[in-house]
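User: As part of a screening pipeline, I want to sanity-check one entry by hand. Below is the sequence and the SMILES for fe (ii) ion. Please return the complex as structure tokens so I can compare it with the automated output.
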Amino acid sequence: MLEPGRVGDEYFMTRGHLHAVADRAELYFGLAGHGVMLLDTLDGGSEAIEINPGQAVYVPGHWVHRSVNVGAERLVTLFCYAADAGQDYDIIERAGGMRNLVVATGDGWTTKPNPEHTGYQLLK
Ligand SMILES: [Fe+2]
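Assistant: Here is the complex for your manual check:
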């Protein structure tokens, strides 16, 4: 469950991660609320996919991911992933955040480039 709210124009989000075993995928299923799955590849790809009740969102392996609550109510999701996937939570912090921010437009949401993003670096 992710509470609704914003800091400035940026919506509340999860910390986000890349799976420590990076090729492990994950499936999210929307149960309540209105959200966005924000996804980045390490080499420049980026996607933002809506999460709504009754809809599944597939997160392929090798994608950094976080969920964002863009609604007025709690975002509730069910998710499952391989037990050995693990999480590298620090990869986003080392990069100055994900490539894009999810922000309010007045009547919805959009993404905009994160000026503090410096690129992803894997630890050896
Ligand atoms: Fe995950």
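Points to compare against the pipeline: Residues 90-94 form the longest helix (5 residues). The pocket of fe (ii) ion is lined by residues 17, 19, 26, 65, 81 (CB under 6 Å).
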